[in-house]
Amino acid sequence: MNSFKNNLISVLIFTFLFLSVQQSSAQNSKSVQIDSLLQNAHQLGLFNGCVLIAEHNKIIYKAAIGFTDASGKTKLTDHYRFHIGSIAKEFNAVGIMLLKEQGKLNLEDPVSKYIPELPAWASGIHIINLLQYTSGLPDVKWNRIKNNAENMEELKRTEKLDFEPGSQYAYNNNNIFLQRRIIERITGLSFKAFTEQYLLKPSGMKAAIVDPSDTDKLIARAYNNDKTEDDLTYPIDGWVAVTPDDFYKWAKAITDFKLINPASTRQILEAFGPGQQGGLGGGSMDGNKMITHKHDGTARNYQALLVSTIPKGRTVILMTNNQQNNLYAFNTSIQAILDNKPYAQIKKSVIKGYGKQLELMNGREVLSFFRKMRDEHNKEYDFDSEATLNEIGYNFLRKDKFEDAILVLICNTELFPESGNVFDSLGEAYYKQGNKNKALQNYKHSLELDSDNDGAKKMIAILEKSN
Any signal peptide, and if so, which residues (predicted)? Predict the structure, then answer.
């Protein structure tokens, strides 16, 4: 009997070790693929920054790729801090909800209760409107103001709102600005001091810094493709710069409800309407459990993206100091790798690289150029996506060059015959040309490929009614 137990224990131990080795090997393979994806993109000038990826709540990949600034002399490390653009608004949104949980404010409180020196319109804006970007406030006058005091004076001179509070959505930074000022009025602390004491420290963030200056060390400097560096500071303050490790700690503090409870989290995660943003960007919850959390941010040539899928224990963090507008494309490929699915390499945009030349071509010339580029530069430029010819086709449509648009879009349907979107685009081109029969034919085929295409359904109804 003891021999049987010993054998059983040995089998179980062997099985556990075997599965552990298999899992570790699979994660190593994924890390190698992810690293290859990023390094190839870096060689093409398409990524310079830091990456952190967690799977099953463990960091499986972390890298700093490229250089700290435009000079290209100092290599990045994961100790460097990056501005994260609009993602930094999460700190004031969480701060507001923290004060609400402490009973120091209500979301229905008017802004005038805390900032009485603002015009009469402030009594009609509630704190919830600031969190949902439904205040009606005009945006910050970036070309005029230089600091907080000047922005507050600009608001005092504002005679009326852009719309009635709560009636529309308009994302802008004056909503964020007033959230930060309300936190200051209630706590008696600067927003920087409040963030450090009540948000960064409880989250375990030791390297993050609020409003870094030129004298601070280990700050990645953003620059454009002409190697011109951005200013580090911004006209209104309160912007948190983070390392990849601290960014991950913040993401976990949100998803694990370390700072605020699930009910408060839901109020700033879910937006006013579809396709809009809340204080935490966007995401979903199931009861008191968070399912997803996604947020992107841009600040001059800094860009950042956070995508968390909580049931998988998965977080993808991307930060760059050389904006290429491709972080979502990276995320798509990284998610595919993590899911053991085929993925696309990140390549240069034909339109971005040759836009001026393409503007001078007709449809036939575009297709000739496209085919030549595809044959000779396939490893460097993106020909795997339907978006390139689709965008060129729409550019012809905007100029009422219908025959050129149709020629290009027909080619796109031949290259991507399983895409409902490309047939929808061709249908639109025929419709604008006045060829209703071919428009109807392509809209119907688009709907066959994509049954959720509500736009195609509407156009089919219009076209069938007109026949």
Answer: 1-26
Q: Is residue 125 assigned to a domain?
A: yes
Residue 431 belongs to domain spanning: 350-466
Output the pTM of the full model: 0.83
Residue 119, CA distances (Å) to 112, 139, 149, 461 in order: 8, 16, 16, 50
Instruction: Specify the pLDDT at position 14.
Output: 59
108 with 234, same domain? yes
100 within a domain of the structure (yes/no):
yes
User: In whole numbers, what is the pLDDT of the chain averaged over residues?
Assistant: 94
Neighbours of 16 (CB within 10 A): 10
Does residue 33 belong to any structural domain of this protein? no
What is the DSSP annotation of 205-245? -SS-EES--TT-SSBPPPB-TT-PBPPS--SS---EEE-HH
Residue 103 lies in a domain: yes
Q: Which helix (H) or strand (E) holds 6?
A: helix 2-43
Q: Is the dihedral of CA 11, 12, 15, 20 positive or negative?
A: negative
- Co-location of 255 and 304 in the same domain: yes
pLDDT in tens, 180-212: 999 999 999 999 999 999 999 999 999 999 999
Sequence-distant (6+) residues with CB within 8 A of 464 are 440
CATH number of the domain to which 170 belongs? 3.40.710.10
Encoded tokens for 86: 């609009």
- What is the C-alpha to C-alpha distance for residues 278 and 192, in angstroms, rounded to an integer? 22
Closest by alpha carbon to 425, among 405, 450, 454?
405
